[in-house]
Amino acid sequence: MSKHERLVIVGSGPAGYTAALYAARANLQPLLFEGMQPGGQLTITSEVENFPGFPEGILGPELMEKMKKQAERFGTRFEASEITRVDFSQRPFKLWQDDTLYTADAVIVATGASAKWLQIPSEKQYQGRGVSACATCDGFFFRGVEIAVVGGGDTALEEASFLTKYASKVHVVHRRGELRASKIMQDRARKNPKIELVLNAVVDEILGDGKAVTGVRLKDTRDGSTRELPLKGVFMGIGHEPNTGIFKGQLEMNEVGYLAVKAPSTATSVPGVFAAGDVSDPHYRQAISAAGTGCSAAIDAERWLGEHVTESWN
Questions:
Q1: Residue in 158, 160, 181 with CA at minimum distance from that of residue 233
Q2: Please, are residues 174 and 199 in contact by the beta-carbon 8 Å criterion?
Q3: β-sheet bridge partners, residue 171
């Protein structure tokens, strides 16, 4: 026996929680599946200083808890589990949480995107204490110190260029002898006196004193030799991966997996399914922009339901 819902929100974080807040206030009684990382990427971020309304800053997990409570206050229901399969080929839409089937009149996808990491233990140990995947979020904390950006594409060089506003020097560490970035980005980086290219090298280990990053151990990809580079921060610039695996073949997406929306709306390729936050945003990936599209998705869903679904399916 399936459980029917008027609106299901898949994913949490600023987009999912804001969508839930607006949907709940519109009496849509949303059911939100929080996924494997309730609160999204901000739960692994320490201080958030660029979210409006918090002049002293706020811890990422605390901000997400406040958003969740606000959505809960107006009647959002939460499932601390993830949707593992969907079928959007007909209405009502079908969503499975393992073997449990849910049907829904409308769906908002807010599953986000995950930063690509090096997958070394020391990286996880120092996340939020010198290791970051968001220059815009955390660059301010590295005024006047040396840092590294890992990667050789446009993302890495954009991050490095931005970080030179704060850091005294930015080392761009890339495993190959040539960068992958566009020529214009390479030229810009080479002309910037604060950027130093470290080619044919990988981060073998992130070094620290137990509390914060103190440097990195670099390994030469040609001869395997290692050397240590003292610095205070390491930024991952190897890209993001949208969490859209279960929507392949169900929703239209771009070549790297970000969901396609019919801007300025949040409508996806399937009428009645909407997308909010990083899952459909390869450009900004900020908490405030994710929250904004969460608001838009809830309003889009409410209007769509009003026009297309006069009574709930059974």
A1: 160
A2: yes
A3: 148, 196
Question: Do 90 and 144 belong together in one domain?
Answer: no
**Strand extents, DSSP E, the chain:** 3-10, 31-33, 47-48, 58-59, 77-79, 85-87, 93-97, 100-109, 113-115, 131-132, 146-150, 169-173, 195-198, 201-208, 213-220, 226-230, 233-236, 240-242, 273-275
146 and 255 housed in the same domain = no
CA distance 266 to 2: 27
pTM, rounded to two decimals:
0.79
Domain co-membership, 100 together with 148: no
85-112 pLDDT per residue, tens: 999 999 999 999 999 999 999 999 999 9
Domain count for the chain: 2
Residues labelled as active-site residues = 134, 137-138
- If asked whether residues 188 and 230 sit together in one domain, one would say yes
Task: Identify the domain containing residue 262 by its residue range.
Answer: 3-114+240-308
Say yes or no: 145 and 42 in one domain: no
Percent residues over pLDDT 70 in the chain = 97
Q: What is the pLDDT of residues 173-190, one digit of tens each?
A: 999 999 998 999 999 999
Going by pLDDT thresholds of 50, 70 and 90, the confidence category of residue 314 is very low
Strands 85-87 and 93-97: antiparallel
